[in-house]
Amino acid sequence: MRESAMTTPLVPVSQIATAADLLKAYAAGQRNFEYVLLAEADLTGADLKGCDFSYADFGGANLSGCNLRGADLSYANLGDANLTNTDLRGAMLIGTDLRTATITAAQFHQADYDPDETHFPSGFDPVQQGLKADR
Predict the structure, then answer these.
(1) Which of 2, 5, 9, 91 is deepest in the core (most CB within 10 A)?
(2) How confident is the model over 27-78, as pLDDT tens digits?
(3) Taking CA 20 as the corner, what is the angle to CA 18 and CA 24, rounded to the nearest 5 degrees?
(4) CA atoms of 18 and 47, how far apart (whole Å)
């Protein structure tokens, strides 16, 4: 008879205060990071695909080169965040604030957005970038 695998307990989001805390929790299998507060964090090149970052604060964070494929960033603050070369394909961007984010060469194909609630930088065309309207 085999012993069941031990599971790592989830870290309460309130205890995730640094990029290192987030990466450690992700490596342990945690994917729910709703309301996490990581403004100004440096997550350059991190693989965080499939996470729930709804209502998170990444204001001013460096997310350049991150893999955020399929992540839920609904109602997240990404103001002043660096999303250069970030993979956001298939992400949920409903109500996300990207107005002052740097999105150079970011990939948005098949990401969901709400035309009335998602905020993009001036001149950004979500349809041309391959996003799909949720409404």
Answers:
(1) 91
(2) 999 999 999 999 999 999 999 999 999 999 999 999 999 999 999 999 999 9
(3) 125
(4) 16
User: What are the start-end ranges of the H helices in the chain?
Assistant: 19-27
Task: Kindly report the average pLDDT of the chain as a whole number.
Answer: 94
The burial of 63, by beta-carbon neighbours within 10 Å (0-12 exposed, 13-18 middle, 19 or more buried), is given as buried
Residues in the chain: 135
Closest CA to 15 of 44, 29, 35, 45: 35
Q: What is the pTM of this model?
A: 0.91
Other CB atoms within 10 A of residue 108 CB: 24
Token pair recorded at residue 50: 């499939």
